Amino acid sequence: MKARIMELDIPAHQAIQELLPWFVSGQLAPDEAARVAGHVDSCEQCSKDVAWQRRMHDQSPAMPAGLDMEAALARLLPRLEQPAGGLAQREAAKDLERELEPGPEPEPERQLAPELPRPVRLSRPRTPAANQPSWLRATVVAQFALIACLGLLLVRQGDAPPAYHALGAAPSGGNANVVVTFRPDTSERELRRILQANSARLVDGPTVTDAYLLNVAPAARAAALSALRAERAVTLAEPLDAGAAP
Amino acid sequence: MQQDGSAGLPAPDRRATAAQRMQGDESRLIDSIAVGDRHAFETLYRGYFPRLARFLGRMTRSATLIEELVNDTMLVVWQKAATYDGSCKVSTWVFAIAYRKALKGLKHSDEPVESDAEQYQDHDGPQPEHSLVRRQQQHAIEQALAKLPLAQRMVMVLTYYHDMAYNDIAEVLECPVNTVKTRMFHARHRLRDLLASEREESE
Q1: Long-range contacts: A228-233, Cβ < 8 Å, 24+?
Q2: Element (H, E) at A202
């Protein structure tokens, strides 16, 4: 046997020597274990070493004296609730649910849970948050909702009467309450005089029927209509109520 | 007898199958703990308390401190369960937390970073085959183990008493794999010398 030891490859023997403890404890990969086993069979020194290490390994370690596991656990349990606010309440609610509904834990309840100091479970840090499909989905949905809201606001704004009516802006006729027609030969000066005399403002016109839509103070509309009808240049003066066609 | 499909396998394969099953069970417990399952936490706690106590007991002789370190470790497990990504065994992850907690805790305490063979008790009680000679051998080993430098002692403890692979030990102790192998090599030769000299003294 000793002659066989002399034939051994020394670096390989040393490498095997380093692995012996894990060969004994059965913690080597199968190929490594097979290599070590092959060497041990042919090496007296390693074989003796394995026998000694087996004795060491088989000495079951004793437990340190004076320990009380249940007491230690009882001290730890309240600490599980301390760091995060609201944990106690949520846990209490969870316990209550368990009592009320024994059996498998429903999925929504499982999502309720961890309210610890621990890095929140919204996204498990196993993958970066930016790469979480659920995170992306939520963002896209929020984005679409925002766009829809903005679009709605835009449409509603378009329906509202303009606060400022520029000269070049399209006529709206929204606040006209009198419709008048003038003789075709009425001059601009005459028309302006009639409007000023009746405190009327031109809102729209001429329409396709050559009518003009005017706005007068509602309280003075009847008087304005009488005055307008009395004008020689005015061929028609009629009240215009909301929704009525000119 | 439980039919688990591994009954016909050779011993190392059976051991590997059992280890895989345990790893699967512990992974599921961690997943449950990550969603706040206190029952799962208590199950894991009771499973790990003796293991961590044996491990930490090789670093300090104070039972109070051991319990405190186990609790600090398991509190981190509760808080960080969601960050466990399965890239290592659950035991490797938990022991790594415990080792860091112990180094930090012992640094700030007056406790010596040593173990004491006198503090260990035999929970199994007297057994027919558990002879006086065997208890004496165990006591001698524990005394010799306590005399090893901390780094070597912890590698030896994790190898022999916790059946950890060298790469898992490297993760727990945060050192290269070759360092683990070298420490173990020196530790067992030193232990052999210590046991031999103790034997000579007793004779």
Answers
A1: A228/A178, A228/A180, A228/A194, A228/A198, A228/A200, A231/A194, A232/A183, A233/A182, A233/A183, A233/A186, A233/A190, A233/A191, A233/A194
A2: strand A201-204
Residue B50: asked if its preceding bond is cis (omega within 30°), the reply is no
Rounded Cα distance, B163 and B169, in Å? 10
Q: Is the pLDDT of residue B130 over 60?
A: no
Contacts of A27 in chain B (CB under 8 A): 159, 163-166
Asked if B101 and B131 touch (Cβ cutoff 8 Å), the reply is no
Positive or negative CA dihedral for A188, A194, A197, A198? negative
Are the beta carbons of B114 and A35 closer than 8 angstroms? Answer: no
The answer, as to whether pTM is greater than 0.80, is: no
Distance from CA of residue B111 to its chain's centroid? 20
pLDDT of residue A142: 84
The Cα–Cα gap between A97 and A101 comes to 6
Scanning A33-62 for CB atoms below 8 A from B yields 33, 52-53, 56-57, 59-62
Inter-residue contact A215 to A200 (CB < 8 Å) = yes
Q: Please check whether residue B171 is in contact with residue A68, taking contact to mean a CB–CB distance below 8 angstroms.
A: no
Residue A221's H or E segment, with its range, is helix A221-230
Is pLDDT of B79 > 50?
yes
Determine contact: B188 vs chain A, CB below 8 A: yes
Rounded Cα distance between A77 and A73, Å, is: 6
**How crowded is residue A106: how many other Cβ atoms within 10 Å of its Cβ?**
11
| Nearest of B117, B112, B78 to residue B97 by alpha carbon | B78
The more confident residue out of B90 and B112 is: B90
Mean pLDDT score, A53-72: 86
Structure tokens at A177: 């309450």
ipTM above 0.90, yes or no: no
CB–CB contact B63 A64 (8 Å) = yes
